Amino acid sequence: MLAENLSETFTARRHGDGKSSRSDAIRMAFCLLGGILVFNSWLATKYFASAIDAEAAQLSAAIGAIILSAPIFVSAVRDLLRGKVYMNELVTLALIAAFSAGDYITAGAVAFFMVITIAIEHRTAVGAEASIESLIRLTPRRARRLADGAEEDVDVLDLKVGDICRVRPGENLPADGVVVSGTSSINQASITGESLPADKGEKDEVYAGTTNLTGLIDIRVTRVGTDTTLGKVKDLILAAEHSKTPVMRMIDRYVGYYTPTILMVAAMVFFFTRDLNRVIAVLVMSCPCALVLATPSAIIAAIASASRLGILIKDVAHIELAAKIRAVVFDKTGTLTEGNLEVARLKPAEGVELAELLQVATSTEYHSNHPAAAALKRLAKEAGIAWEDPDRYTEVAGKGVEATYAGSVCRVGRQSWLQECGLDTHAVSAGLEEDDTAGMSVVFVSCDERVLGWIGLRDAIRSVAKEAISQLRELGVGKCCMVTGDIERVAQLVGGKIGVTEIQASCLPQDKVTFVENLKAQGDLVAVVGDGVNDGPALAAGDIGIAMGAIGSDVAVQSASVALMNNDLRRIPFFISLARRTRLLMNQNLAIGLGFIVLGLYFSTLGYINAVVAAVLHSLGSLLILFNSARLVRTGEELQTQDSAAASRNVNG
């Protein structure tokens, strides 16, 4: 097949780099040489027949036709050796027929237009190749490793975890790492799609392939090669390119019957007409290049557009699913809210000091990665309160944490969980109904059998959450739901501010799964949006799982169907809109491809189209589909423009 799979072409070109480009140039040179020889023969025969030897003109055409036909013959033989019968064989048979009839000009013209079509498919790639290859080449080949205070130039592949590398302004980072000295602004758009640079200082994480803009920094390497965030991004993009939609699988299933059917049609045409030119036209016009390009070209354009905005699609089949989404379920903390909790209120029990309450809470949460634990540690550090490493630590999913230190069993978690453990929380729950606690997430703290008090934490709602929900409703997503382990009052407050009315509060992980399954049972295709760490079961339960803020998180990248490398909720309606546009273009492309084949076969069978015209129409059909798919490549640029404008306002304001 001349265009069996565009992604195979992209992969081959990536691995070949300059060698592949030189091969393309050589092929194009031979194509032009062959075309000139064939055109020279046609010109001589048409206008200078009396002045030029006919045999010389025929020889010119024959040499040109052989040059042009050679790559097609080679591809056909390669397909047959691999046990495949695709459209290369149809073109080869047409060329053999033309050679047998001594019609070298026709053979050369047909081969010329077919080779030109192949070249355009390889080079155009609907603009997606350049976008994807730019990501592949982001990691520099060389790095400056510091050894005994001196810089040494080394290959990036020689870097090891723990090495210290120096990165100057304007250079791309060679590996994932942590800043050990210096400050700078880092452009992370290649991974996150965000146009606003991120300020980085000591102990901040940085990622391979991102660009150091302003300052000199030294980083300690934490991940190298394919283990880096960029490496995982590249692997996901390449895997998505090689995956197939249901339509693509259906075409693959029936393509084996296509060539024998066309050969029977060609045999019938020759049997009834004895016109070899019609047979050649039928074989050329029936080449399903346009039909084969219809779906992959649109899909790869969509992958390029999505990856530019930091949206990683793990399987292209999810694009078709996303186009049909009618319900979206959001987690609250870290998804609809910033996830950066701050301690808003401390309420100790009678006889308990604030310092004791905070010390017990931070010591119990010592090993937790939950945002609440981070907030408690920040406050304790500011207050100069030291916490201790517990002897034993246990996390109870969706309820809280339990730890043992200094011989005491301490717990931090939901009020209902402490009550399940036999503790009486009523004595310290006074004040929870006051207005100033609205919007707070509350955790209770206990030590042995004594409840020490509660701590209120507050989280800011993401600035674009309301806009994203509004955009989803404009797309016809009828159900925008929120599930959270937080209490009902906090959930309702957040939901009311962003426009979500269907809310499920006080959810354990299994409750979130049940909620999603109930939505699916109603016949809705459901997308679940979460942070990819605590929401793994719910993400897996949805028809599509979308992990937010997946940069640097292996769990987030692996736990969902789609990974967003940043936390911009507007990427979700954009992704659904992109999926719908992709599906529309796929249908348009399939209609164009089928139309060219059916009408072309009809008119070539009747003799209205000769072989050369059939080759021209074949090329036009392929180009029309490529250019139609190319419209997807620039999709999303308006979102990047909005981000840039917002960034400028923030800087100037």
DSSP strand tally:
22
The helix/strand class is alpha+beta
Provide the spatial order of strands within the biggest beta sheet: 10-22-21-20-11-18-19
Distance between the termini: 57 Å
**How many helix segments?**
24
Q: How much helicity do the residues have?
A: 40-55%
Strand content: 15-25%
Q: What are the segments in which pLDDT stays under 50 over at least 5 consecutive residues? A: 1-18, 647-653
Total tally of structural domains: 4
Q: How much is the average pLDDT?
A: 80
The biggest beta sheet, please? Answer: 7 strands, mixed
Radius of gyration: 32 Å
What's a quick, concise take on this entry?
With 653 residues, this protein is of the alpha+beta class. Helices cover 53% and strands 17% of the residues.
Explain what you see:
The strands form 4 sheets. A 7-stranded mixed beta sheet has the order 10-22-21-20-11-18-19, with helices on both faces. The chain folds into 4 domains: 6-131 and 237-305 and 579-630, no CATH class; 140-227, Calcium-transporting ATPase, cytoplasmic transduction domain A (Distorted Sandwich); 311-338 and 461-565, HAD superfamily/HAD-like (Rossmann fold), CATH 3.40.50; 342-458, Calcium-transporting ATPase, cytoplasmic domain N. Helices cover 53% and strands 17% of the residues. The longest helix is centred in the C-terminal third of the chain and has 35 residues, at 571-605. The model is unreliable at 1-18 and 647-653 (pLDDT under 50). The chain contains 24 helices and 22 strands. It has 653 residues and is an alpha+beta fold. The protein starts with 5 loop residues before the first helix and ends with a helix. The protein is elongated and about 115 Å long. 46% of the residues are buried.
